[in-house]
């Protein structure tokens, strides 16, 4: 590739990624060369500012038609932009919270790293979202994974944080090995790593013998990626890592990591597996539907049942996060016209509800040095705003009307019932899982309102935290009452992802 | 733009907002605001009822605003689902809304007995009122569901925070049972919505019962319709409650604060009946007709089971709880017999039992405040100490057992009349059950009023600061008079209600093809 072709690419569509990369590099340099006495907190605000810039640039690019650069390895279509928006908005909130939080147990010596590792993780996620090639997908995901391994272990002198990082690293590497093994089959059968080309080749030249390999491949990829999505069968790391990681990082894992996992998953499923023909005019994806729906059902039941018995709020949210991954997978695996819209909207609402909830959890767990649910007792009297916000997030997660969580769940159910072969069993399971989840979500609310407080001391929350929580509350209610304001972005601006890998 | 119904529904919210700026320790002001916030809706509704009498027909006051669109892809995809904010009333809605408004106002007075956290209580209470009013005015199924969930969440907190000793358990039971019920309802709603593209009651009724090709987005098979109807009966049966699903309700009646139970037993249980009439009979008339015998049998089981258990209860609250189960059986029987008398009787019973059970639980509240117990044994012989209160209990009991001249008589009489025409055995069984009703009601009332005087009753000090303590406080008098007025007025002149609901009855009968 000579200079001329290199310059002929439309690099501007990659501007949001470049912005994040630039800020991350800048931060690393500043952290290295600035004198000790300069407080590193400012770097965090710089990072947040960079993310805001990236969001603005991204918004201006919404209507640009799908473009690819670097021989289709980077492919920016409306799907990628929609999900990058989620990743960046979530990242912005996480950065604000990270900057405004206190750093303990060894974190205080690595404040700079905290911020630019978050940025590099974001960058990894964005690259995944705009990839049209297995290699870039892999690199993006690994960039995010490796950054988050370090982030989980940032509390150097805290045993459980270190343990979590270790577990996360080992499990993550196994997961990577598994899906990479799956990739090797894809490459072997098609001779290319480019998704579009691979789809065409597999569409035209798949023989019956290849099909068995491809079914195996699908299995490997689902198992490997279920690690990131936190669905069955690779979900058992979730509670331990969520519990040990610094709370803000847990928020990052539960929202952004999951989003990226789903983006990766959907790209592969719709990009490749939906193009592999099987007998009877169907494709491999439809062939695998029962399997995916089964996984989704297991995931939501497992998550909700395990969450019932948790006394530790972070573990409870870990299992709740597994359960929500189940709903998300269910929304995808119905393959209706609304599937992608459902997954996007669900992730959007989940972002606000979960980040808001983790901001509150951070504040209490950090204050009490323990994540036991009893610290929520009587919060209504100690900090009415926090208690009411927390209950709105919990109602949202439980899927109660007038919160965005309800609309998200409604879309999942709609998407399952609108296809002619309605997935009634799936819907029944979603309902059963939701009822189970009422028990523990309302259990927290019972603590908030009904139980007497341990100490009458008022809880004071810093301004940045308050802002993030308030925005999350407003968004949770707003998208519950006016879901159109978000869905229209998909329906009109992104035109229902019509240019998906085309 | 017609916003009358929205005004009626959302006016209590102003009270919620007002309360949030009042100091939480200002007990008097909070209680007053809580009371007055229920009044505007009540006044508007009474005016509407008056208008209906004058004109002889219910004006529907429809409102419609486009709200949520799902799947309106701009690349012209075929799927497009719309959820509108649409309100409108018919006779049944108007009757239920008026009942709601009256009971809410009275319950807000009785809630003055609440001893803590008045502000939070009244905020939740007013939200609950909004939920209930909206539910009866909703013209589409999804809006109905949204309001329904408001009542669910607010009631959970009202039970769990301001109840008796085992309130949290009762609240949990309420939540799980009703949460399950409401989510089953959601499946029904979404299936209908996804298959027909609308959730409007009238459109659904039209679309599902017109035998033309390609009316629906996706076909609903006969089996599907049956499954939906059964799911619906289970979902609403939890609320009503139909017998195997009733245990939560007994707990709630036992543990929640009496003012909450007034609302719960007076209105929330009736949502089940309302839904069965509106959706069960309205949208699935053919299946309902085929299932009617089974529903009637369920109804009779409800009547007998409730009555038998009420006979054995030791606590006044559980007596009335099982009595509610029994009385709701009459609603089921009325709906099952498929003739005009049956439907009219069922609706009449819904409204009349709303007043009667609320009245009874108001009395429970006063008894509890006077004697600090609701155990029948411990309440023995109150006639000597509180004759007026005991007299009111006797009147309440008599109207519950269906004494002629009270509204209870009209409704049960009409239902049995309807049943005798259709399923004679059910009619006879229901009539026999009335004997049991008399037995358990009189047993409870007589044990309390004339039973052997218990230590608690004789130990009660009737003088406060030297002067004789009155048995009923001013607002309790007022509430009692309101209840008695309605119970007797409906009993003596039933046309007050039948005129209003006649359009719904006629429409339901026509829908059933009779």
Quaternary structure type: heterodimer
Task: Say how many strands of chain B there are.
Answer: 4
Order of secondary-structure elements of chain B:
HHHEEHHHHHHHHHHHHHHHEEHH
Rg over alpha carbons of chain B: 23 Å
Order of helices and strands of chain A: HHHEEHHHHHHHHEEHHHHHHHHHH
Mean pLDDT of chain B: 89
Describe the protein in words.
- The complex is a heterodimer of chains A (502) and B (514).
- Chain A is mainly α and 502 residues long.
- Chain A has a domain at 294-502.
- Chain A has 21 helices and 4 strands.
- In chain A, β3 and β4 (282-283) form a beta hairpin.
- In chain B, β3 (463-464) and β4 (467-468) form a beta hairpin.
- Chain B has helices at residues 4-20, 27-36, 39-55, 91-110, 118-137, 141-162, 167-196, 201-208, 222-239, 247-255, 258-283, 285-312, 316-336, 340-371, 387-400, 407-422, 424-450, 455-459, 474-492, 495-511; strands at 63-70, 81-87, 463-464, 467-468.
- In chain B, α4 packs antiparallel against α5 and α6 packs antiparallel against α7 (167-196).
- Chain B has 514 residues and is mainly α.
- Chain B has one domain (4-461, 468-511).
- A two-stranded antiparallel sheet of chain B has the order 1-2.
- The A-B interface holds A 337-338, 341, 395, 400-402, 406-407, 410-411, 413-414, 417-418, 420, 422, 424, 427-428, 431, 434-435, 438-439, 442, 446, 449-450, 483-484, 487, 491-492, 495-496, 498 and B 67-75, 77, 79, 81, 145-146, 149-150, 153, 156-157, 160-161, 168, 172, 175-176, 179-180, 183-184, 186-187, 190-191, 193-195, 217-218.
